[in-house]
């Protein structure tokens, strides 16, 4: 599993490096009046909220989860989603969007008072499985029909990593259901 985690981290960083570099280089020439379509604005909002929720819930998992595999999954999600959030922030700032989206308080609130196996089950269901299923759909939609070229490219580059997270979440759910 550690090799897989290192491989995922490296592939995630490599997937976004060209997009971030192009955006950083292009940011100087971008005007603040460069407007995003409502759909692209919604993507940034939804992707940002999903990422913030994933990070916050995964940080809770580090102290509330009883299962080692759940904590390892959470640690990987913190690393990968923090990188994704940074990359999306670069793109958002290019368009004058500076306030980072907040985490979904209903999800975080539902997890805060849980501990041990009860937390593990809720985290796997609400964050790992449901959260990644929704994220895959969100990033697929943006990569296929987004209007902003850079956002569309960023979504397409992130999609394999998010899809892999979804697969990992499904496997984690199956493993924990069997035990």
Automatic annotation (TrEMBL):
Residues 1-22 form the signal peptide. Gene3D superfamilies: 1.20.1260.10. Keywords: Signal. Residues 39-172 form the DUF4142 domain. InterPro entries: DUF4142 (IPR025419), Ferritin-like (IPR012347). PANTHER family: BLR2558 PROTEIN (PTHR38593). This is Membrane protein.
């Amino acid at each position: 599993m550690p090799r897989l985690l290192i491989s995922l981290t490296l592939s995630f960083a490599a997937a976004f490096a060209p997009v971030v570099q192009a955006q950083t280089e292009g940011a100087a020439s971008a005007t603040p009046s460069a407007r995003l379509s409502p759909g692209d604005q919604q993507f940034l909002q939804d992707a940002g909220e999903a990422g913030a929720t994933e990070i916050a819930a995964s940080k809770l998992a580090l102290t509330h989860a009883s299962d080692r595999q759940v904590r390892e999954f959470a640690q990987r999600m913190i690393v990968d989603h923090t990188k994704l959030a940074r990359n999306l922030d670069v793109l958002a700032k290019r368009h004058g969007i500076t306030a980072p989206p907040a985490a979904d308080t209903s999800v975080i609130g539902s997890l805060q008072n849980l501990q041990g196996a009860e937390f593990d089950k809720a985290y796997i269901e609400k964050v790992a499985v449901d959260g990644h299923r929704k994220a895959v759909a969100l990033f697929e939609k943006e990569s296929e029909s987004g209007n902003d070229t850079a956002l569309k490219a960023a979504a397409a580059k992130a999609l394999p990593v998010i899809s892999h997270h979804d697969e990992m979440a499904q496997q984690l759910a199956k493993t924990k259901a069997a035990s």
